[in-house]
User: What shape does this take?
Amino acid sequence: AQKVTQAQTEISVVEKEDVTLDCVYETRDTTYYLFWYKQPPSGELVFLIRRNSFDEQNEISGRYSWNFQKSTSSFNFTITASQVVDSAVYFCALSEARRGSTLGRLYFGRGTQLTVWP
Amino acid sequence: DADVTQTPRNRITKTGKRIMLECSQTKGHDRMYWYRQDPGLGLRLIYYSFDVKDINKGEISDGYSVSRQAQAKFSLSLESAIPNQTALYFCATSDRTGIQETQYFGPGTRLLVL
Assistant: This one.
């Protein structure tokens, strides 16, 4: 069965610090997708990234970077030089992607509350 | 305009009342989903629909029903609301291209059942 674990419930940092949010997943599928979503205090869910299981290249987008390691079933998210506006709950999620599968549901972790202090 | 809208954004109701949450999308996606979020539990799937004639239960469908009135509309109903259905409800849509899929979420509906 699919499972996503975000062991860090809350993290607090001071502005300009780097911070890494951990995500560990379990799946029996050989092909799957991993996601990160951001939920700011206003409550909406903002899509940040999708990573395919067959592509282990790390990705950088501005201050955000993602480290996908299949060997350890991890998909960690790093914010460099954090800012107060980064304060939010961040969710890691997993979906299956078998050919012919009709179910693309997302399995979410419980989220990590990140607070960035000025 | 937002691609995925939910109405109402906030709702307070009483135990036993029937309530409907509505979701509309302008993304042209076939797939739509309803999730609920409870503090510390992440999001859990209630129902999902792959097209107008295809509706399926998720992991926590008891106490809920849905209606897919059109490709763009997917409503969630609580036939007889109870306090433990107090939660933040999200609608999501996706367009499955090949085997790739990304879900995009609406702004959420905060529901309080007294």
User: Anything to note?
Assistant: The longest strand of chain B covers residues 42-51. The mean pLDDT of chain B is 91. The interface with chain A takes residues 31, 33, 40-45, 48, 50, 56, 58, 88, 90, 92, 94, 96, 99-108, 110 of chain B (CB under 8 Å).
